[in-house]
Amino acid sequence: MSVDGEVRRLRTEADEPGWEVDPDDEWGVAVIATVGRQLRLRREAVGMRAGEFGKAVGYGEDLVYKIESGQRIPRPEYLDKADEALGADGLIAAMKEDVAKVRYPKKVRDLAQMEARAVEIGVYEHSNIPGLLQTPDHTRALLESWLPAYAPDDLERRVAARVARQAIYERCPAPALSFVLEEPTLRRKVGGTMVQRQQGERLLEVGQLSNVSLQVMPMDSAPHPGMSGRIELLKFEDGTAVGRSDGAFNGRPVTDLRQLRVLELRYGTIRAQALPPGESLALIEQLLGET
């Protein structure tokens, strides 16, 4: 196939690293298998061979077969082009939402589902700004510093997954959210001055919400129970809860009441030692003035 007289190179598997299906993600495997089956059935229904269809959407025949067999996650633009080539009137393009969720790492998706059910969430973070508070550019800058480096597509997938969790702020009724941040995380120039400034402005914006308590642990504070790592507590409407701490129970999520009490005691002590919300927002505003 040619475009403006030039031969168009068809995309192959090598052009799309990181779009494989995680075999341990049962829900993701089922979604991609269903999408692939629907694509194959529609292609066959209109009498198109895989190679002919591939040329129409700009993909090699081998990659078409792998997508249809559920071995590869189709890109959003693939689904758009397939919808047009097969005359599906938007039915194929409508699959993009579920396919996009499969691209999110399973543990992030599981966390987002729990956060979406929680009526109360408490987070202490000792080395980073919590994901629920991060701007996209801050998240991207953090992930770009990791080694080994993420492939560009994988990095953007992880940024999108973290940002998607912030839909929690749009819930009604709103959950009660509390955060405790260490002062050094506010001073660290993640992504440079502009990204740091935008992140500070985001913290002030969220910290003024009526359902949010945002506190800062000052650098001159005494030792506290959170120095061994982050703590996260989620409570649900039915009275159950789940918690996790880097410094307790081998970092595993816990639901046992006795273990939860330990995490609640530690988190409560941390909140008591941190600056009150009003003073915390004033400190963030002061740091913004220094950037």
In brief:
The protein is α/β, with parallel strands linked by helices. The chain contains twelve helices and seven strands.
Q: Round the mean pLDDT to the nearest integer and report it.
A: 91
Task: Tell how many strands the DSSP assignment holds.
Answer: 7
Structural class: alpha/beta
Bin the strand percentage: 5-15%
| Biggest sheet details | 5 strands, mixed
Q: What spatial form do the alpha-carbon principal axes imply?
A: elongated
What distance separates the N and C termini?
Answer: 53 Å
Uncertain regions spanning at least 5 consecutive residues: 1-7
Indicate the radius of gyration in whole angstroms: 23 Å
Number of helical segments with 4 or more residues: 12
The helix/strand order is: EEHHHHHHEHHEHHEEEHH
Helical content class: 40-55%
Strand order within the widest beta sheet = 5-4-3-6-7
Describe the structure.
The protein has 291 residues and is α/β, with parallel strands linked by helices. The chain has helices at 26-45, 50-57, 61-68, 76-85, 96-103, 106-117, 136-144, 152-164, 183-187, 193-207, 257-273, 277-290; strands spanning 2-3, 6-7, 118-125, 176-182, 212-217, 231-236, 241-245.
What's the arrangement of secondary structure elements?
Blueprint: E1 2-3, E2 6-7, H1 26-45, H2 50-57, H3 61-68, H4 76-85, H5 96-103, H6 106-117, E3 118-125, H7 136-144, H8 152-164, E4 176-182, H9 183-187, H10 193-207, E5 212-217, E6 231-236, E7 241-245, H11 257-273, H12 277-290
Parallel strand pairs: 3-4, 4-5
Antiparallel strand pairs: 1-2, 3-6, 6-7
